[in-house]
Amino acid sequence: MATLALALLLAPASALASSFAVEAATGARRPSLRPVDLAVRSIGYGLLTAFWFQFSWRPWLAAASCLLTVAILAAVDQLKRRIIGEPPVFSDLALLAQVPRHPELYYTRSLADPRTAGPLILGLAVVAAWYALEPTLLPEGTGPALAAVLALPLGLAAFVGLLRTSPGRSLVRRLFPRPDLTADVARFGIVATMMGYALRRRDETFEPPPLPPVLSPGEPEAELLVLVQLESFLNPVRIGGPPLPVMDRIRAEAAQYGRLAVPAHGAYTMRTEHAVLTGREPESLGFGRYDPYLAWKGDEPTSLARLAGTTGFATVFVHPFHRDFFDRARVFRRLGFDRLVMQEAFSQSPRIGPYIADEAVAERILAEVADGGRRFVFAVTMENHGPWTAGRLPGIEAGLAQYGHHAAGTGRAVERLIDGLKGRRATLCVFGDHAPSLPECRPRPEGPVATDYAVFRFPAPADRKPRRVDLTAGQLGCLLRGALAANKPGLKSQA
């Protein structure tokens, strides 16, 4: 009994010390040694250890599980900082269910791959052996054991409940007053920061945001607004790639074009998507900025689709990928889209590499607007989605060369849309969701690399000269609001 009691003391202490050592060795910044910061960090490790302990009642197994979890998070942290430029965040946990279904999108392998299945099976075997060898601390007797099994998860739930009370919320608010992910991870560690951010997001309340201002009035009575989010698109010349003919057409024919400051680098498409569709900057979302679809679930009064619906437009979302990804099918219904054209509609469409060709998406967009009705079409392409790895394209092995090949297809798709909409009263906007996650294009200390955007008005006045205006993704959403506001008196605001 004394040995078991000693293990109950030493195992959690070793979990805390070893977890701190792992994060100190791998983190982007030196960890804070302030007593308050260390206390919060220790609570995070302690809760994680207790979480694992409730499944086995074996203290050393729980301690090892805590250390393994922290080590995995530290490895993810290093990968994310190198590719995306930020540490893991609580909303990443909501994406875990997508990893086995779409491993290629997360730079992982399928569970059926021996390189994945082998370590998993070995890990399960080690846990089973450990489970058999380490004595349990469960009390003897069915009644006491059942009481203990129920008491621990109830105790953890009670602790979380305390943090949801008014004093608890106030404490969490003082520790995490605003999103500052890199600094908070250095202060409190990944585990405690993920917990704190999740609590802050859950307790945040916002008044419905006002309609953003219109930055530029639209052409009167436009019959079409076509908005296309181009996967990982920017001018390849900026990262050492080949020039695209479409960039010359943009500079010669667009009403407005420029660089687009986006909320993320190399991933998190939904952040840019949300900013453009709502006109809301990430700063206005609080802790929901990391995954706006998870936080708001499409309940957005400022959605362009909702505005388009009130002005008599049919609203269509086009995306040649799974309905379940980012929960888009449900979210986009709530954003105000009447009809969703998704993966099943592209079953016969050509693929370039692993994904549907952007030119096929352009043709589908033109088919959607061919009947002459008023349409707001928002499309999200997939052809240029990473990873750019050997074997993706026959005869093209280098990642940057693969990116350039796909970007050329994107350019042809944009040109097809320009030519196909010229005879209509229409606004066409194309923009990149984020920069590609290539070695030639890493995130910078000052923030994500900007993408490119362009807005075309058809028919274009003969005397109109294209102008370059650099915008944020939220400002682009406000500009597009102007293309719709001209169709409904009273919606225009002062810029």
Please count the beta strands (DSSP E, at least 2 residues each).
11
CATH evolutionary superfamily of the largest domain: Alkaline Phosphatase, subunit A
| Helix and strand pattern | HHHHHHHHEHEHHHEHEEEHEHEEEEH
Shape: elongated
So what's the CATH class of the largest domain? Alpha Beta
Spatial separation of the terminal alpha carbons: 73 Å
Overall pLDDT: 87
GO cellular component, one term: plasma membrane
Domain Sulfatase N-terminal: 225-440
Main location: membrane
Protein name: Phosphoglycerol transferase MdoB
Keywords:
single chain; 495 residues; alpha/beta; Alkaline Phosphatase, subunit A; nine-stranded mixed β-sheet; two-stranded antiparallel ribbon; 11 strands; elongated; disordered C terminus
Question: Can you give a write-up of this model?
Answer:
This protein has 2 domains: 2-203, no CATH class; 224-485, Alkaline Phosphatase, subunit A (3-Layer(aba) Sandwich). The protein is 48% helix and 10% strand. It contains 16 helices and 11 strands. Strands 1, 2, 3, 4, 7, 8, 9, 10 and 11 form a 9-stranded mixed beta sheet that branches. It has a two-stranded antiparallel sheet with strand order 5-6. The termini are far apart. Mean pLDDT is 87; it is low at 214-220 and 489-495.
